[in-house]
C-alpha cells in the first residue's frame, strides 16, 4: 500500500519540496497567504486530508510495530511559529488524526526554575520519541534562540553558541534513528492582529488571550530576524526546516500533513516478521 | 451547548447507568455480546459517535480552558480488560477523537526493575492527569491485583491489602479534583480465541501476537475471579467501575464514549472569565 503511492508527482512530495528551506531562502519574501503546490480551495484540501487518513494510519502502525522490539526508527516533528500562528490547530487537526498510542506530544512552556538551572537541551532530551513513535514538539529548543535572543535573556555569546549546539544535538538524535522534521508556521503581522482581535470578540476564546502577546508584537521584526537566523543556520539535510505559509489555516494543516506523510513514506517500512512459529501457534490457539 | 442535552433520557446517561457496577453485580452472568441501552447496529453506533464529536470537543475544551490556571478539575479514565479485549481500539477510536492537547495517555507495561523496587502506586502517581486534562490509563494499578494475584507474584497478604490501598489512593485523587471512571472491557473466552486466531491469519497483525497470551488463557477463570474481586471491592461512588460487554467492538467503543461524555457533561463547566479588561485590550490590539 505504501509503495504504489510513492511517485514523484504526489502531493506530499511536491508540497514538501516546495516548502523545504534551501540556501538563500528569505523569510521576508514569502507570501504568508500563498498555497504553494496546491491549486484547490479549503474544501478540496479537507477532502485530500480525509482521503489520506487510511494511508497515514497504515504507515504509522508500521512505524509503531517496528518499534516494538525497542530499536526501530521514530519521527520527531518540531512545530514553531509566532503566537496565533495556528500551532494548536495543527495539533488538533493533523496530529489529532493519528492514533494517539503512536503519538508523544509535548508542549514546551517557559522553562521552570529547575529547567533554567540545566543546560537548555536538558528538558528537550527528556521528551524525545521512543522507537516507533511520532514525537511532536509544540515549541522546542528553538525558543532558546528565538524569544531568548529577541529579549536578551542570556548574553549574546551564549545564544550565538546555541546554533552549533543545536545542530550537534539534532545530529545525535538522527544518528539514533529519529527522523527530524521542523516546521515553521508563518503568518503576517496583520493576520496576527486579526486573530488576536477575534479572541477578544468571543467569550469562549478569552482563555486563549494573553495581554503579553500584544506586547510581543512590538518585537515582530526582531522575531523575523531571529527566525531567519534559525533557518540559515539549522536547516540541515538530515533535520530540514519547512516554512509553511499559515495565513490560511486550511493550507497550513494540509501542508503539515503532507510533510508528515512524506516522511512516513520515506521510511519504507514493512511489517515485522513473526518471531514465533505461526503454524504451531495456530494449533495452540485452536486447542484452548 | 452542554446544558440543553443533559436530560435523563439521553444515551450517555442511559448507557452509563446500565453499565455501572452496583452491589451484587456478577461478572459471570453478563452476556459479553449484549448491547445494553442501545438498540441499533454498528452503523447506527458510528453515526451516534460522529454526531457527538462536536459536543465532546466543546466540553473537552472547556475542561482544558479551566485547567489553564493550574487548579481546575481533570478526568482519569482507567481501561482494563483481558488481552485482545479491545483496549487499543478504544484508544484509537474513542480517545483518538479528542484533541490530543487535552489527552494524557499512558500504557502501563510490566513494571521495570526500578518500578518493582517502589510501592506499586508509585509509577501510577507519576502519570496522573494535570488540571484540565483527560488522563487515560491503558492498564493501571489494577494489574497489581489482577495478574499479580493470579500468578502469585507477591504473597497473598500483600495483594489482599492492596484493595484498601487502592481505594484510599483513588479517594485522594478525587479529593484533588480528578474525576475517576474505570472501565472493564469484557469479552468471552471464545471471542478471545477468535481474535488471537485472526492475528495469526494476517501478517500485518503478527506483531500484536504474543505466544504468552495463549498461555494466559489457561488462567481465564482465575482472572474472572480476580476481576470480580476488583469490582466488589473497588467500585465506589466516587470512582465507579463500568463493565462493558466487548465482544462487539463497535458497542464497546460507543459505550466508552458515552461514559466519557456523561462524565464531561457532569462537570457543568463554563468558559473561564477574562482576567483582563476586554475593551482596553481591544484598543491595544487595534493600535498595533
TrEMBL record, chains A, B:
Domain of life of the native organism: Bacteria
GO process annotations (BP): polyphosphate metabolic process
GO terms, molecular function: polyphosphate kinase activity
Domain Polyphosphate kinase-2-related, residue spans: 41-265
Keyword Transferase: yes
InterPro entries registered for this protein in UniProt: P-loop_NTPase, Polyphosphate_phosphotransfera, PPK2-rel_1, PPK2-related
Gene3D superfamilies, per the entry: P-loop containing nucleotide triphosphate hydrolases
Keywords: Kinase, Transferase
Protein name: Polyphosphate kinase 2 family protein
Taxonomic placement: Bacteria, Bacillati, Actinomycetota, Actinomycetes, Micrococcales
Amino acid at each position: 500500500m505504501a509503495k504504489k503511492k510513492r511517485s514523484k508527482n504526489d502531493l506530499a512530495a511536491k508540497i514538501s519540496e516546495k516548502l523545504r528551506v534551501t540556501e538563500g531562502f528569505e523569510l521576508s519574501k514569502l507570501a504568508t497567504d500563498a498555497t504553494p503546490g496546491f491549486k484547490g480551495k479549503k474544501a478540496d484540501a479537507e477532502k485530500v486530508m480525509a482521503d489520506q487518513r487510511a494511508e497515514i494510519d497504515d504507515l504509522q502502525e508500521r512505524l509503531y510495530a517496528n518499534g516494538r522490539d525497542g530499536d526501530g526508527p521514530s519521527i520527531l516533528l518540531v512545530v514553531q511559529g509566532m503566537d496565533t500562528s495556528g500551532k494548536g490547530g495543527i495539533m488538533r487537526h493533523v496530529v489529532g488524526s493519528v492514533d494517539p498510542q503512536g503519538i508523544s506530544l509535548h508542549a514546551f512552556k517557559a522553562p521552570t526554575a529547575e529547567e533554567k538551572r540545566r543546560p537548555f537541551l536538558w528538558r528537550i532530551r527528556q521528551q524525545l520519541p521512543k522507537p516507533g513513535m511520532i514525537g511532536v514538539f509544540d515549541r522546542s529548543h528553538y525558543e532558546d534562540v528565538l524569544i531568548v535572543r529577541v529579549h536578551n535573556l542570556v548574553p549574546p555569546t551564549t545564544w550565538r553558541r546555541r546554533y552549533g549546539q543545536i545542530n550537534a544535538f539534532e545530529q545525535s538524535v538522527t544518528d539514533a534513528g529519529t527522523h527530524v522534521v521542523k516546521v515553521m508556521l508563518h503568518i503576517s503581522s496583520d493576520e496576527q492582529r486579526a486573530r488576536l482581535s477575534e479572541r477578544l470578540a468571543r467569550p469562549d476564546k478569552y482563555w486563549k488571550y494573553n495581554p503579553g502577546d500584544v506586547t510581543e508584537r512590538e518585537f515582530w521584526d526582531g522575531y523575523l530576524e531571529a527566525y531567519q537566523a534559525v533557518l540559515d543556520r539549522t536547516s540541515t539535510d538530515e533535520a530540514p526546516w519547512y516554512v509553511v505559509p499559515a495565513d490560511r489555516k486550511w493550507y497550513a494543516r494540509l501542508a503539515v500533513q503532507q510533510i508528515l506523510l512524506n516522511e512516513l513514506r520515506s521510511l519504507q517500512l514493512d511489517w515485522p516478521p513473526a518471531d514465533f512459529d505461526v503454524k504451531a501457534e495456530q494449533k495452540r490457539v485452536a486447542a484452548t
